[in-house]
Amino acid sequence: MLWAGRMRLGTFGIFLALVRAATACEFGAVPYSITGIVCRMTKPAMLMLNQKTAQVIQVAFRNARFPNITGERSMRLLGRVAYGLHNIQVNDLSVEQSEVQFKENSVIHIAIRNVTAAFRGTLTYGYAGAWFLQLFHSVDFEIKSSTDLQINVKLTCQRDRVAADGSDCYLVFHKLTLHLQGDKEPGWLKQLFTDFISFPLKLVLRREVCNEVNFLAQMVADFVHDLAANFVQDEDIKLDISLASVPLIKANYVESHHKGLVLYKNYSDVLTDSVFSPSLLTESRMLYFWLSEHTLNSLASVAFLDKRLVLTIDGEKLQALFETEDTEAQRKAVQMIFQGTSYNDSVAKVWSLTHPQISLRPEGTVVKSLVAVEVSIFPAGEEPLTVLYMEKEITVTIQAAYVEKKLVFHPLDSSIEFKVFKCTADPSGDDLSVRNFLQTMISAVGIPEVISRVESALTSLMNSKGLHLFEIGNPEIITRKGYIIVQLDFGFPNHLFLDLQKQL
Question: Out of the domains of life, which is the source (predicted)?
Fold first, then answer.
């Protein structure tokens, strides 16, 4: 277990202070300029999460390891009375109420009201007279307590990630009552040891519980960081979510700023001109994510480098593309391209020749890319034949939404400009009917088909990270010049809290 070294609190505290000093983060004069991703959590979200705080505090009490408490007092007539509390354990723990407040200087204040607990163990005692020491007696005891717990969690930066310092912690005792085994011991003895052990017991409880709270605060911060890091990583592509500045706490929200640089093999990513400002986000929703245009462009670039922007279409999907309408132009184009070969013996390959360029504007996300399309047929008993090859520059404006746990892209308008066009049935390129048909077909069904495939792939990726397990309310995806905002309300999924409890 991790609790063994917590007895040497003085040494541990000095060591921790040195480590924090050595790992403190340094930021430039204008930290927002390197900010690619921002997460803002408002007070309603913290109040919702506060419902789980009581359970975390219970874990802190149960996980605390209480040392034996020994002492000696001089008593008239009895001489010196030595005592010891051993094998102290927590039972019957309950929390009545917890509250959370945001404070300036990056502090979250948590007030836990009326924490009741029973501490059980063994009491040993004996009398040391002038000439001899009597044999020690031993009796089981139970101490019933009622306390308030006050914690000021300061969010700082260590090793470029959010660190939670919960060392500003104290307990206020309202009740501390000692019960000896069966209460068969004399009443004066019970009162005697209540007076003896009250002060040292309070000191030990404060020290051990607050030490455990501080440990758990950082563990929760690490848990959230690792959860976020896993969410923004897929195989060799991941986002750098190290901090770009110290976490910001205002009266109604807490906000963290992250670099949002793309990490992929030898890919080099630098951001120095971010347009982020806290004034770009509001406080009416529970959770906000701000993403820079630079971050999305970098993701598109590495997706291209990782050869992910490739699509094959065959069989019924291919047939659906070429037979959306039954016209003379359509029949002529199909005959010229496929030369009587069935769709089941044909395949179309679509891929990006260059990395897509993404521009974020109020009307939507504008994607511009040079795309190649190649159609091949596989006649029975013959070699495969490429019957169509074309390169075209496509620009499409998209509005994004998250509906019924699915990412949805709505294409608003598009433009297509042919750069290269080669058709086996028309080597000279004089017959414009095929090209005109293809341009109409690509606009009407080709682009929507590609977008649908991207929707499905991204939804599956996000669901593999557990996004569908969250209860997300009224999500909105808003584009502005140079950035995108995702704002939503949410419910904390129980499985994540169970995962956290396993680590605690």
Answer: Eukaryota
How far apart (Å, rounded) are the C-alpha atoms in residues 146 and 96?
Answer: 10
Give the pLDDT score at 356. 94
3-state secondary structure of 247: coil
CB 419 within 8 A of CB 391: yes
HSE toward the beta carbon, residue 381, CA cutoff 13 A:
0
pLDDT at 28: 67
CA dihedral defined by 38, 39, 42, 44, rounded to 10 degrees? Answer: 150
Our count of domains for the chain comes to 2
**326 and 464 both lie in a single domain:** yes
H/E segment holding residue 217: helix 187-231
206 and 268 housed in the same domain? no
Give the structural domain span for 468: 235-496
What is the predicted pLDDT for the residue at 41?
A: 92
| Structure confidence at residue 286 (pLDDT) | 93
CATH code of 272's domain: 3.15.20.10
Residues of the chain with pLDDT below 50 are 1-23, 130-131, 133, 135
Strands 248-249 and 253-258: antiparallel
Question: Read out DSSP for 264-278?
Answer: -TT-----------G
- Count the residues in the chain: 504
Q: Of 193, 209, 228, which closes a domain?
A: 228
Q: Is residue 19 part of a domain?
A: no
Is there a contact between 504 and 218 (Cβ–Cβ < 8 Å)? no
- For residue 504 the two structure tokens come to 């605690």
CATH (domain of 67):
3.15.10.10
Q: Which residues pair with 347 in a beta bridge?
A: 314, 376
Residue reference for tokens 């009796």: 139
Predicted local confidence at residue 407, as pLDDT: 93
The pLDDT assigned to 397 comes to 96
Angle at Cα 393 formed by Cα 272 and Cα 306, nearest 5°? 55
Last residue of one domain, picked from the residues 228, 263, 297 = 228
What's at 114, amino acid-wise? N
pLDDT at 2: 30
Same domain, 303 and 337: yes
Instruction: Region of 448 please: left (phi>0), alpha (psi -120 to 50) or beta.
Output: alpha
Match 């951001």 to its residue by tokens: 271
Residue-wise DSSP of 167-187: EEEEEEEEEEEEEEGGG-S-H
